[in-house]
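Field reference: "sequence" (input) and "structure" (output). Example, Sulfate transport system permease protein CysW:
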Amino acid sequence: MPDTSQNITPTIVKRKHRVGSDVVFYIVMAGIGLMYIGFLISMLAGDIGYLARSDEANQLMQNWPDWLKPIGRPLVSMARLLEQPEIQYSVKLTLISCLMSSILSVLVAIPIGYLFSRYNFYGKTILEAILYVPIVLPPLVLGISLLVLFQFQPFKQFAPYFVFQIPGVVLAQFMVAAAFSIQMMRATFDQINPRLEQVALTLGCNERQAFSRVCLPQAWHGILTAGTLAWARALGEFGPLLVFAGTTRNKTEVMSVSVFLELSLGRLNDAVAVSLMMVFLAVGVLVLTRIFGLRNPAI
């Protein structure tokens, strides 16, 4: 009897892919995303709608057409607030403190992100967990920790310059914003091929030159993103400021503190107006940064 075992070939059943079978998947994924985005837009629309129904700006809009008043009330409410000296001071301090804290955050995030991306060392896991503490801790707890820290030496001698002072605003914002910048810079360096630095070392560069001339120029986009993220996070910081820097008018008052003070005085309309200013300011900075990054391929 002839051996036919070698002539038997397995039968492969080819299943035809149907495009229609993915429709449910796309609907579910898009639906979840649209629900979240829609909720965010609804929150913003609610703030605008609240100001559009407010009558406090009507005195400044007597000559406006009736159909234009609902649209103009939010803008007039914000413009009216910007005429107040305490709000002007709050906006200026916010812009300056957020800029300083974002610069400090990037300066700290670059070396830490590079070390954690390129090197393995004893205790790295523990240090990584510590770096996440400002992110996972409640902001109020972070402010209490800062306040307690400045009761002990050597920090106690600097307490008069930081506790309930303007430098305390920058420090409180920096402690939270830096944690986000560090994670962003580490992810940035992880995406840069380390072989490029190794080639630079073989060509005569030392570690500093390989970092500054090869790695750092490729990380500019990540640096820009880290700085923007730190700026936006510092803009919305409130808990540590409340405990460590205080809520003193015309002294340590930033825009998030202004919202709290207006609410505490029962002026909900003004609190919503300041909140909208913060939203527009944050969105404007993020959009400009995004446009700047897209127009400059080098970063």
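The chain has two domains: 22-78, 84-295.
The chain has 14 helices and no strands.
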